[in-house]
Amino acid sequence: MKPMDLSLHAIVIIGSVAFLLFILYLMKKGKLEVKYSIIWLAFSLCMLIFACFPYTVLILNDIAGVIDPVNFIFFTQIIFILLILLSVSAVISGFSRKIKQLAQANAILEKRVRELEEKTKKQ
Amino acid sequence: MKTLVIIPCYNEQDSIVNVINNLKSNAPDVDYLIVNDCSTDNTEKILKENGFNYINNPINLGIGGGVQAGYLYAQQYGYDIAVQMDGDGQHDPKYLNKVIAPVAERKFDMAIGSRFIEKEGFQTSFMRRFGINIISAFILVLTGKHIKDTTSGFRACNRKLIEFFARNYADDYPEPEAIMACIVNGFSVGEVAVVMEERQGGVSSIRSLKSAYYMIKVCLALVVNRISFAGKKGGK
Fold this sequence. Notes:
The complex is a heterodimer.
Chain A: H1 6-28, H2 34-52, H3 54-64, H4 69-122
Chain B: E1 3-9, H1 16-26, E2 31-36, H2 43-49, E3 54-56, H3 62-76, E4 81-84, H4 96-104, E5 110-114, H5 126-143, E6 155-158, H6 159-167, H7 174-184, E7 189-193, H8 211-230
Parallel strand pairs in B: 1-2, 1-4, 2-3, 5-7
Antiparallel strand pairs in B: 4-6, 5-6
Helix pairs in contact in B: 3-6, 5-7, 5-8, 7-8
């Protein structure tokens, strides 16, 4: 196994640190809620560990029996992406339920307001 | 008993006035509520001009969400029985009392007006009947209960189910799912024979192009319903 090229190594580390900082920045700005950020933080920390200590990838790669370490990294990333997509679908499902409930409550309220207005107009 | 007829209505400007007048003359002692599901035609204007009792959904919720708004209303205003009836003239208010009777007599928690018991009146197309039979077989296999007209939107239910439906009601194509949810939650469901008309106007919520998607979605939803409520028997 050929050791990673030094400049490539630096790029990978800088990239994963930047990604982690970007997530933290969004959280600080309040654009990413804590409950939705956990899986992203886990993802970026995992990538950061892989970048800083490529040896961990080689160990895990041997344990999993994957031929090329880079495939192991892709595999891990795909798992994370699938998990994130699934959680997004779950979050959307929750939203659509809440929107529906809001609309229904609004519809009933609108009727009450309408009838109240008609009553006050008559008086 | 305080009874509410819930009439979901989406772009029914041609038929809604007839449906309501027909309802008023056949069943003057029941209340009704039209759920205008964000119609894009003149439905709302017609409802307003005629002084009908209606609510307006601010966004289009589909038949499921619309009907659920009706159940929510029935729950908040303390109705004992709620009846669902389509706004397109398919369901004849003449049979309203027939559908309500088993629920009022506490025979069933939910009574479904079925067009396939006496096989009279409009029987829908062959393909529709085929689809309805598949859903029926699905429910039979999953619950052991044989409901013939699984997609009938003409149904009455009691207070317990009004409260249940106000909380849980399926979204897109709710009729078969509602039957399933009732059975697995320990409510009793039965059918009564009614005669249905061909729709007077509007389009069905189940269109030919969407029917394959509809079948897959319904069957999947039925299985999910079966699984998700299996552990909660008696916990209604």
